[in-house]
Amino acid sequence: MGLTLGALRRGPADPTFRATPDGALWRASRTPEGPATLRVTPIEQDARGDVGRVRADAWGPGADWFLDQVPALVGDLDDPAPFEPRHRLVAHTARRRSGLRLTRTGLVLESLIPSILEQKVTTDEAYRAWRLLLRTHGEPAPGPAGLPPLRMRVMPDPRAWALIPSWEWHRAGVDNKRASTVIRAVRVARRLEEAVRMDPPAARARLELVPGIGPWTSAETVQRTHGAPDEVTTGDLHLPGIVGHALAGNRDATDADMLDLLSPYAGQRHRAARLILLSGAAPPRRHPKMPRVNIADW
Fold first, then answer.
1. Of the candidates 221, 160, 220, 167, which has an alpha carbon nearest to the alpha carbon of residue 195?
2. For residue 34, which of 1, 62, 161, 238 is within the disulfide window of CB 3.0 to 4.6 Å?
């Protein structure tokens, strides 16, 4: 369950996501029916630890919507059967990570906004921005999740995002380009949320109509909203080198090289890339890490 829902977690201190010692995963979201908190607990596991059945509890105005979404969220609607490993490393990882399913949230903004925040910065910077903005402008999650010790938050609604003053974006380390993209997106939130009823390519095209949202951001969003097995991320700083290194020993692979290497997995390229990332077969780091820059210090 952690493999499946972990794709929704934006860093270890994500205010919308918690894992508790009893094995439960908690998620706080703004659903079409209002804020809601969901707790999903495994109640049946096989010898490998793969989850067979879960118990779901929900709180808040959007609780019923969230409960209806549970099968899609935990990957029960995902079908990995068409996936055929074409490389030994991928086959080994698929056996070792047999419980992996692709989540499908059905919510666009909650995946789109943090993906925008992750554009052109380190993941630590993006996670910090998401955390600070939700703590300042979000609201306590319904039910026990909003209280200590969890203290979870529901992200702001579109109007609240649009009203965040420029200095608050700056304080969170978000430059004007990314902040402006978020504001443009929330102004057409209703139209963007309609993308969940489209097929993944059409959904990506809808998102990319917003200036500042390109192929990287749309892919990162649709992978989560649709559980799209073929929407591989391009334009990423590290992924082509990781895939190239894992499948061909080419750490300098480009997007074109990566797509060529993944072509045997047509229809399942995102699933193949996820398995390659889970394999741990990343090339040795050759350059210093991208410097972390906090514009709030300027």
1. 221
2. 62
* 24: number of Cβ within 10 Å: 18
| Alpha-helical runs (H) found in 156-268 | 158-162, 166-171, 176-187, 189-193, 200-207, 215-225, 239-248, 255-262
Of the candidates 120, 102, 138, the one whose C-alpha atom is nearest the C-alpha of residue 222 is: 102
Residue-wise pLDDT tens digits, 7-16: 999 999 999 9
The pTM score is 0.93
Nearest alpha-carbon partner for 141 in 24, 41, 60, 64: 60
* String of DSSP letters for 38-75: EEEEEEEE-TT--EEEEEEEEESTTHHHHHHHHHHHTT
CA–CA gap between residue 205 and residue 260 (Å, rounded): 22
Q: Where are the domains of the chain?
A: 2-77, 109-195, 239-279
CATH of segment(s) 109-195: 1.10.340.30
Q: Are 9 and 2 in contact (CB under 8 A)?
A: no
For residue 223, give the 3-state DSSP assignment.
helix
